Amino acid sequence: MTDQLEPVDETTKYKRKIDNTLARFSAAHDELEAEERERRERREKLVARLEQTRTKLHRVVTAATSVVGARGSAISDAKDEKPEQDESDKPAPQTRLQEKKERKNHRLLLATRITAVALAVLVFLATGIAWGAKTWFNSKFNEIAALDENSTDINNVAGQLGDENFLIVGSDTREGAEAEDHVGDTSGIPGARSDTVMVAHIPKDRKRAVIVSFPRDLEISRPDCQRWNPETGEYGEVIEGADTVKLNTAFTVGGPQCVTKVIQQITGMKINHFVGIDFQGFKGMVDAVGGVTVHIDEPMRDQELGLIVAETGDVKLRGDQALNFVRARKVYGDPTFSDYGRMQRQQEFMSSLLRATLSSNVLLDVGKLTSFVNAFAASTFGQNIGVDQMLTLAQSMRGFDAGRVTFLTVPTVGEANERGNEVLLEDDTAELFHALIENKPLPGEEPASPGTKGDTEERAADGTREATPA
């Protein structure tokens, strides 16, 4: 320690500062030690009190047990008692304190039993309510037979375990259309056609999503299919297959099952979810999720529908405006003034709607889920799209970056042939779907170099891939 009478120079000031600091540390240490001592004393007192309480409780239980045993013995002995039994053999009468303790223990035991029964009833009711809610939700979905998961057209079945492949079909049925929609009605345009066909592929690792669109005029060889009645959802007689027909005829003739067959033949993918969307009824579903945001570079005007969107930039679409956005086919400014521009818009819109459907904001919020289920049930039909499947998928996609979505159009020649059909580029198509099935980089993507695992996914998610030009 320094002497306070030393000459005060810089060195002395520094030493005194150190001495003061040490003194403060020492005082703080003493305070902490005193506090710790007090805590130890409080803990010891608490332990002692708990031990006393435990001992008293043990004595009460022992006494109660002894009383009950004594009473039981007395009753048993009374049954066998002989008239000449000596008075000294009878148990001593209970004291008032023992009787009071026995009554108290009896009430405690009764209360415990009542509590256990009440808890069991509550658990039963909670389980029943949860089961009933799930049953109610599932009953809302319009289940239609659509899948063929054992098809011989599926490639590398084992390699596709864990993948989720949604076949999404947008139906242009005029059922429910209003006059102001300018799309006609069922008397003039009966039945239903697949105005939109796309596959949403989510691999097992959930690191990305790829959405592939198919032109409705894609030329296909339609297999034998059962005729489908869109009003009842039932299948009937077998319709013989046909060559060089349009893809949308598969839905018109054979409904969901026929479209699934065709898409599995083209892609080799195992379709394990089918979602049919009625364009006239999906407006409520869009509103239930709060609208869908799309990017508009310039005001959107269609030759038949007129001005659809006047704003530019990121615009949230709802109701009729959303319906016209996905239906418009002859939009001024589209390079081809045909179905390719519409497919690009549908890709953006439908992928946004799909992500909203799978988000926890909808699936795990009771109020939003109820509104969405009602709207979803009114506008969709399909198979393997119940509550269990959606919740499982949402759980597995937790942490999934919504921006990791790649949009593609199945490779075609780009020009209609003499039959007015789009012709598939078979080699390019096979390469694309092989990459998806094997979870490898898509055509045009560079494979990740050593030490840069995940780069491929990052490059694939940087933005929307261009659709095949017309």
Automatic annotation (TrEMBL):
Residues 15-53 form a coiled coil. Residues 193-356 form the Cell envelope-related transcriptional attenuator domain. It comes from Prauserella oleivorans. Residues 454-470 have a biased composition (Basic and acidic residues). The chain crosses the membrane at residues 108-133. NCBIfam families: lytR_cpsA_psr (TIGR00350). Keywords: Coiled coil, Membrane, Transmembrane, Transmembrane helix. Belongs to the LytR/CpsA/Psr (LCP) family. This is LCP family protein. InterPro entries: LytR/CpsA/Psr_CW_biosynth, LytR_CpsA_psr. The lineage of its organism: Bacteria, Bacillati, Actinomycetota, Actinomycetes, Pseudonocardiales. Residues 72-101, 438-470 are annotated as: Disordered.
